[in-house]
Amino acid sequence: MEQTTNPAFVNPSPASKEVLACLSKCFQSEMAGIMRYLHYSFMIMGHNRIPIQKWFRDQATESTDHAVIIGEKITSLGGHPPMISSTIEETHQHNVHTILIESLKFELETLESYKELVRLAGDDIALEELAREFVRTETEHVDEVRKMLRHG
């Protein structure tokens, strides 16, 4: 049978339910990150507004990029990206310190999801490399937020 007519060639076997569930959780986190970081960028006020607002907008853009990559991976593996995001808590506390604490909590949760994806990747080297890259990126975010929370 030619490869072009072989169903296994066109439609590889779907990923495990655990992998797809983890990818869906990561996708939902990134979608929530878009809303979270845009919201924070709108609510920053004061003398340091411009650089902090830009940093949050950059985080929203990166969350968008991650969501696109993850959504494509989900469909490549035979899944369906969810139409909902993770829950976003609104504390109505918009001072920079409080927003950064909320950001750190979010980044740490997202980091754990990506670490779980690394563990679940198994023999899928491409998925493992993708997850490891996201672990690196999220770890850098955690480090940056922790630096911003330090008092000189």
Features:
152 residues, mainly alpha, Ferritin, 5 helices, elongated
Structure description:
With 152 residues, this protein is mainly α. The protein has a single domain (14-149), classed as Ferritin, core subunit, four-helix bundle (Ferritin), CATH 1.20.1260.10. Helices cover 72% and strands 0% of the residues. It has helices spanning 7-10, 17-43, 49-76, 96-120, 125-149. Helix 4 (96-120) runs antiparallel to helix 5 (125-149). The longest helix has 28 residues, at 49-76. The radius of gyration is 18 Å and the shape is elongated.
Largest sheet: none
Per CATH, the class reads: Mainly Alpha
The CATH superfamily title: Ferritin, core subunit, four-helix bundle
* Average of pLDDT: 91
Briefly note the structural class of the backbone: mainly alpha
What is the β-strand count?
0
Can you tell me the residue ranges where pLDDT is under 50 for at least 5 consecutive residues? none
User: Structurally, how many domains make up the residues?
Assistant: 1
Rg (CA only): 18 Å
Coarse shape: elongated
Please give the count of helices.
5
In the CATH hierarchy, the architecture is: Up-down Bundle
Report the portion of residues in β strands.
under 5%
Helix content: over 70%
End-to-end distance: 69 Å
List the helices and strands and how they pair.
Elements (H helix, E strand, L loop, with lengths): L6 H4 L6 H27 L5 H28 L19 H25 L4 H25 L3
Helix pairs in contact: 2-3, 2-4, 4-5
Brief summary:
The chain has 152 residues and is an all-alpha fold.
